[in-house]
Amino acid sequence: MKPPFNWFLSPPLTPFRRWGAMAVAVVADGLQFLVGPLGWVGLDQAIDAVAMVLTSALIGFHPLLLPTFLIELIPVADLLPTWTGCVWLVISLRKKQHTEVVDIEATTVPNKPTQPVPPQIPPKQ
């Protein structure tokens, strides 16, 4: 049985997830740049909400996504490519802290010698 999805655990950063998150960010920033001057306030917030959910689903939730979401609520600031910058920064940070997962069951431990090895004493001169 598959465990339920956890928004706070970061999934492995596969190339598909990285490119998908960047595509979502670029599309969100592009749509906001095109729609921004028209003054459709509700549409801007909908784009932000969709970008936040899709980005969190692709690369996992990161605290940097919250200030980006709040900055996008400011009327002029939503014309800046904040989603693209934030997603790029989160991906960069996750790549740095990425650790390789080791499968314990598949790991083999070398056998210990059956007889104890006596310590080597250097010859006297």
Overall SS class:
mainly alpha
Tell me, rounded to a whole number, the average pLDDT. Answer: 78
Q: What percentage of the residues does DSSP assign to strands (E)?
A: under 5%
Q: Helix tally?
A: 4
Cα shape: rod-shaped
Radius of gyration, taken over Cα atoms and rounded to an integer in Å: 25 Å
Helicity level = 40-55%
Give the oligomer, counting copies of the same chain as homo and different chains as hetero.
Answer: single chain
Identify low-pLDDT runs: none
| First-last Cα distance | 69 Å
How many strands in all?
0
Order of helices and strands: HHHH
Q: Give a short account of the largest sheet.
A: none
Please explain how this structure is put together:
- With 125 residues, the chain is an all-alpha fold.
- The protein has a domain at 15-97.
- Helix content is 50%, strand content 0%.
- The protein has helices at residues 15-35, 41-59, 65-71, 82-97.
- It is rod-shaped, with a radius of gyration of 25 Å.
- 19% of the residues are buried.
- The mean pLDDT is 78.
Entry keywords:
50% helix, 125 residues, mainly alpha, 4 helices
